[in-house]
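Fold this complex.
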Amino acid sequence: MSMRTPLKNVRHLGSAKEGTTHWWHQKVTAIALIPLFVIALAYVVSLVGADYDRVRYILSLPFTSLILLLLIGATFYHMKLGLQVVVEDYVHTESTKVVLLMLNSFFCAIVGLAAALAVLKLAFGG
Amino acid sequence: MANVERPLSPHLQIYKPQITMVTSITHRITGVALAGGTLLLTWWLIAAASGPGAYATVNGFMESWFGRLVLFGFTWALFFHLCNGIRHLFWDAGKGFELPTMRKTGMAAIIMSVVLTLLTWVIAYSMGGAS
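Structure:
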């Protein structure tokens, strides 16, 4: 029993004009984050009480960089999608909503890129 | 508004808390809190990349009682969002919608999040926290 017109079903993109993309990306990043989070947590726990040189050494290993870059990518994209829904649910003034959605995108991009650059610096020295 | 006779949905304040609504709103709250928590991870990574001085500063914060409190909350928020997120993935696959199942998995998510948080901290302290 569908409330949609046949044309709407054919186009299947809904009112946001992007269909299930948002939902699907949220799911893909969620699944990716399960193992990435577990591995990253193991790293953090193993580094408790470690001195600076040890931390620096562990963070310079290629596998660490790979895990951290994947974690950062999935986390900040998942976070951007999640915070976007929160804004869309609670902010109904169009102009405020658009500004907040933009700030959300900027915030996630800036913090995520900053974290990724730190990982790259740790990986390649300097 | 005059003459509102249609049924109105009850306000949250007078709504009896149920496991389904509590886990739902907590999922959202922990999600937003975790977004703030990413600043902590980013600060730590940048400090480690910057040098021993910056790293000592971030480490000093994390070892303070306030830092520990924030980290403990961060750990629990991560585990809750993870456990409850797995429930969401099952719902997305069309499974687990029966009310008794919903209540059981909701309770399981809460209990697991607490157990895993405590376990993580016990392991962390036993491995390196003593030094």
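The mean pLDDT of chain A is 92.
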